Amino acid sequence: EAQVTQNPRYLITVTGKKLTVTCSQNMNHEYMSWYRQDPGLGLRQIYYSMNVEVTDKGDVPEGYKVSRKEKRNFPLILESPSPNQTSLYFCASRRQGRDNEQFFGPGTRLTVL
Amino acid sequence: AQSVTQLDSHVSVSEGTPVLLRCNYSSSYSPSLFWYVQHPNKGLQLLLKYTSAATLVKGINGFEAEFKKSETSFHLTKPSAHMSDAAEYFCVVRTDRDDKIIFGKGTRLHILP
Lengths: 113, 113
What we know:
The complex is a heterodimer of chains A (113) and B (113). Chain A has 113 residues and is mainly beta. Helices cover 0% and strands 50% of the residues of chain A. In chain A, a hairpin with a 3-residue loop joins strand 4 (31-38) and strand 5. The mean pLDDT of chain A is 94. Chain B is built from no helices and twelve strands. In chain B, strands 2, 5, 6, 10, 11 and 12 form a six-stranded mixed β-sheet that branches. Chain B is globular. The model of chain B has no long low-confidence stretch (mean pLDDT 91).
């Protein structure tokens, strides 16, 4: 089944404790991205990657890192999480090209205490 | 710069009555436009997309949207609401120039029995 998977789905952590949220897609998509969703703000893009070893900042990159060593994986790293990073995070992937839809993962709900 | 505005943060309709969710966009280049739906505690699912073919686009679950360039609008409609339509809906624009994807802030649709 074609899908985007994220792990973990739920995470509660404390300020300053490094964490990684994994994202994997099995559709051989070139483009992957991370979003955060906050009430009243919709989805805002954190980082995106147009292919292996190519990453770029989205609208809200501060406090996050990503890597794209393999085509299928695009982990999101929070080196020193803070409470303002409490949010719902979505990973997405799609083929290159303007008409192609994005496929979203199920989301990761992160709480930073 | 491109942007997308969803004119209503909440819309309430009675079951069996028409649904109208409004979306206006701003783009200097030919846009691709999408509507996504997010049911409670779920990920995002594509409803429909406009990609410069027919201006009236039909999607899943009886939804459709019409691209009106003169009005820079891409409103989502459905003739008869069903209880299962209760969800949050996001209008999304993507442009050729930089392949940037922008989400609207979402419209929460409530269905009254």
